[in-house]
UniProtKB/TrEMBL annotation:
HTH hxlR-type domain: residues covered: 26-123
Keywords assigned: DNA-binding, Transcription, Transcription regulation
Origin superkingdom: Bacteria
Originating organism: Chitinophaga dinghuensis
Protein name: DNA-binding HxlR family transcriptional regulator
Length: 123
């Protein structure tokens, strides 16, 4: 009988652990929805380094990205409040991107990922 009590406590403990794991995954899933994918972190790092960054400069730095994909990724980052876009009424048109205050909070994350990548052994 006492063994059943221990198992019930363990089951509660496992359920609590699962709840915590799910909550952490929800937060990570949210973050990955916003900054995940092949291009977003690279774009954010480029904008962070060359702020403000122009569309053409970003395109030159990431030669493998298509015009449509670059546009879509920038629009998503803008709609999520991570970057802001400023268009100047000039000919030819000039558009610049910079990090918003929310986007600036990602700078330590980006820097940590860069440092981790620099320290990762080449294979």
């Amino acid at each position: 009988m006492e063994k059943d009590t221990i198992d019930e406590k363990q089951a509660v403990s496992d359920a609590e652990e699962m709840r915590i794991l799910e909550e952490n995954n929800i937060a990570l899933t949210k973050a990955m929805r916003i900054i995940g994918g092949k291009w977003k972190l690279l774009l954010l790092n480029s904008i962070r380094r060359d702020c403000p960054a122009r569309f053409g400069e970003l395109r030159k730095k990431m030669q493998d990205i298509t015009h449509a994909t670059l546009t879509a990724q920038l629009k998503e980052l803008e709609s999520d409040g991570i970057i802001e876009r400023k268009a100047y009424p000039e000919v030819p048109p000039r558009v610049e991107y910079k990090l918003t205050p929310l986007g600036i909070t990602l700078v330590p994350v980006i820097e940590a990922l860069c440092a981790w990548g620099e320290g990762y052994p080449d294979k």
